[in-house]
Amino acid sequence: MRSLRHVTSINDLTNPEVEHVFALASQYLKRLGDKDIPYRIAKSTKAGQGRLLATLFYEPSTRTRLSFESAMLRLGGKTISSADPNASSAAKGESLADSVRMLSNYADAIVVRHKRDGAARLAAEYAHVPIINGGDGAHEHPTQTLGDLFTLRRENATLKNLNVAVAGDLKHGRTIHSLVYALARFGSRIVLMPAPGMGLPEHVRWRLRHEFPGTVVSEADQDKPIDVLYVTRFQAERAANEVSTYPRIDLKFLDDKKFSRARVMHPLPRVNELHIDVDRDARATYFQQAAYAVPVRMALLSTVLGLSEKKFAHYAGGFRKVKEELVEPPAGHGIACANPNCIVHDEIDGKYSANKFYALPSEPPRLRCFYCETDIADVRGAARTRGAAS
Amino acid sequence: MRSLRHVTSINDLTNPEVEHVFALASQYLKRLGDKDIPYRIAKSTKAGQGRLLATLFYEPSTRTRLSFESAMLRLGGKTISSADPNASSAAKGESLADSVRMLSNYADAIVVRHKRDGAARLAAEYAHVPIINGGDGAHEHPTQTLGDLFTLRRENATLKNLNVAVAGDLKHGRTIHSLVYALARFGSRIVLMPAPGMGLPEHVRWRLRHEFPGTVVSEADQDKPIDVLYVTRFQAERAANEVSTYPRIDLKFLDDKKFSRARVMHPLPRVNELHIDVDRDARATYFQQAAYAVPVRMALLSTVLGLSEKKFAHYAGGFRKVKEELVEPPAGHGIACANPNCIVHDEIDGKYSANKFYALPSEPPRLRCFYCETDIADVRGAARTRGAAS
Amino acid sequence: MRSLRHVTSINDLTNPEVEHVFALASQYLKRLGDKDIPYRIAKSTKAGQGRLLATLFYEPSTRTRLSFESAMLRLGGKTISSADPNASSAAKGESLADSVRMLSNYADAIVVRHKRDGAARLAAEYAHVPIINGGDGAHEHPTQTLGDLFTLRRENATLKNLNVAVAGDLKHGRTIHSLVYALARFGSRIVLMPAPGMGLPEHVRWRLRHEFPGTVVSEADQDKPIDVLYVTRFQAERAANEVSTYPRIDLKFLDDKKFSRARVMHPLPRVNELHIDVDRDARATYFQQAAYAVPVRMALLSTVLGLSEKKFAHYAGGFRKVKEELVEPPAGHGIACANPNCIVHDEIDGKYSANKFYALPSEPPRLRCFYCETDIADVRGAARTRGAAS
To answer: pTM score, two decimals?
Structure first.
């Protein structure tokens, strides 16, 4: 069996691996950058000649798909794309597992976007080429985070000791979930500014609290100046209800002394939460952020495909602060992931497609779904949800 | 006028031409194959540099379109793609003939998928580059069959004297129709295992019976072991009714001694007819089958585009067991194809788009539609269907 | 700030620039043309290696998108494509301005198609790569016109003193609007043959009358033979009502002595207005016209991207017959474009997205919208439409 490196979560990469991606991205900007626009790639290499990237997108996208395609083409490679589930065999009822097995034969790496949490990790189990998570439900969007961190590093010169306020839909925002882990790992502080009822999910907060105590604060408790204000869109497609009150960042909001030097970031697209008046303000950093997606994705693809001299080491669990034990209860019985949007609930042939957990060293016992990384805090309670055999 | 070779039916290729495609595909696997996965292409050539393939798909597809695109890119060429009829000028009412004439100027070969039987052959009449049939209604899917045969040849070392059971929707399954002709031509036997009411169409059975007597048997009459079990999906998009009973191949079904050495094949995507438990069984061959699509399509494209040393001869009718005479009654009057899904019934400017038949040497007289290859068994009866002038 | 050349209107190019594009297109046909088909490109160059073209299409298209992609690939470049607004971030509510800013970082030029008049010019304001208008509402389709003129030049050897009849939907047909300006500029006469109620818009007629007096005649006043009959489809997607009477060009229509030597052109796709019987007539020129799209778009891309030795000069207003003064009233107040389909009426953050006019040297005062080029004939009347502050 060959060793593949998948990027399904930001935690699949160690800190030195993230640093390697950034170093390579900086080289690309230096060698291939636009002479007028410092954050833009304008030329191509031939390093990736003959290599193919597939994009397999089950949800709408422009930015992620096109920036990955641009990155692959700038590397000298080529792309094939399944961007519209209605025009693909998904319309005929094909499972994600089968689609990924097929595409593994047609391309050298696959970027997957899916509405289900944990879909990327399921895809990785069936692929024989590297899987890159292009956003899976409300779980993670690790390559967005790589671009975000790279932007912070370029614009702030450091990732350490920053006060990063995250505003908006912290509940469904997959970019937020990847980001907060990464900020904690690189030594920054996270200041929570959720929209009402849209705080970080319990399992994300639990994990940050146990692995990085003290890194998360609520805005009320924060009196230091904010270095970065990271705004996100309301994820209407993932939320059960409409929202009545949502943060709206405009120049008036930014008048607050706390934000006087705060860089404003946003993964885009924006709808109403970030006013266009901010575009001309020196603190606006979101267009650079969008541009940095290309060199960062070039660097990631280059490393994953083995185009650069340095390759990622054989998978050794990525970043792990806590030692977890993998347990695999039999499918269809007993314990199941408590997250209703987890990919494991997609049934194939009358079976749940997968069922696997990390047992966390905690009291009371806690299981973390291997796929979507949602925790079952009370294992006995969860076990009942599917009427275990006994 | 230049001579073009179109592949609209498996019978457009002679047996030596099929063998040439296989020889070339084997070379590609040897030169460009994945060192860990024997059926996967992992590298590219430059033979097709500067050449363009267009995919013109009026029906959903992932496998066919992406494997063709992958094949063209692995050859060093490039692709343009019209994959969504709703985002194309088909949405404005453009005819297939006009679309093909246009694309002939933009690319060097065109793969067409269409819901109408016979669409590929109509397209070929208007193209000035080679047309490859990527599936036309319930008619044929010849490049799927090339991949299927190649799989059989690689895995069974021969195409002769195999007992190949075809199961499921034999009525609407275009892959089946291409396959049974090819199996008969290469000397294998076809064992019918249709879902209830989904047997081979009458004209397909008639042709096999007249051209290859004795090659088709029903499962009940077959006591020899099955070498290959070829399963197909219910073609819901082509059937008038829901289906209540459909074969379901699982490990229990395969327990039957008759299947003890049968390779299980499936053109994919599957829905419920082939259980995932079979995936881990040594007899499962469908994932290799999907992978072989790439080298086979590379070989076909290479030959059609004239990239390899050997080119297909000028078209001399492909494989023909029986001498047929082409007759062309005036459009809009008299005899018309009896198949309501035939492309000829698409009206353009108040005319049926085409009308042309092979007169078969049989008694009673029998006409075979030039486009969809459905027969009119009783010519006088059919003639009445459009109220002939007299 | 770097100097970019956008092509949002045919009038963005001077006559010598148009001639340069044609000279280059002719060279491509000579060097890379099909030996059997004089109007078809069959080979590729490497001039554009490493360069990327993005297509950003908010409306269905096959011809424009695929011929641009073909042109870019034949130049040796590559493409990324957002062809389906439902599968893009437009589905999440992203503004055109934001989408263009993003794509500017992923590609070296962008072709935009949009349902709003003036969208291309708005896009150009936000892009930092060249924008090419692939059709914006009923405004213009300048690259179609470049192909049309090139066809005329190749087939008629001149663009001067031709009598060009334009038939059909002259009101909504954006190809017509670009075409009539170009014909006037190159010294041809325009003979109007509108469908009932579908004459040229008032502002187009006004402009032709003032800048090129005497170049437009109605068919009734025209007794000279027609050199070119340019037919267009009814633009159902842009019209408020169904149409009952529409020109239908067939062989009988062309029997008229006036058309005995008229080349028949059509931008395609056609629906019913141009009968297929004409296809075999020697006067039919529309398939050549479709084919010439490729060398012409290659030449345009080559010039815009700076691949050819000659580049377009820094933007100096393109073709301008009349000196206009740019005025910019404050957004949200006072004067606004009177065209309800103009892009400026897309509100972003409670503001109209833009508001800018050319003051024309005329009496009574007349303002031309900078974006969609619709005129406000009575400025005071228009000012009232949005309830000016005073």
So the answer is: 0.95
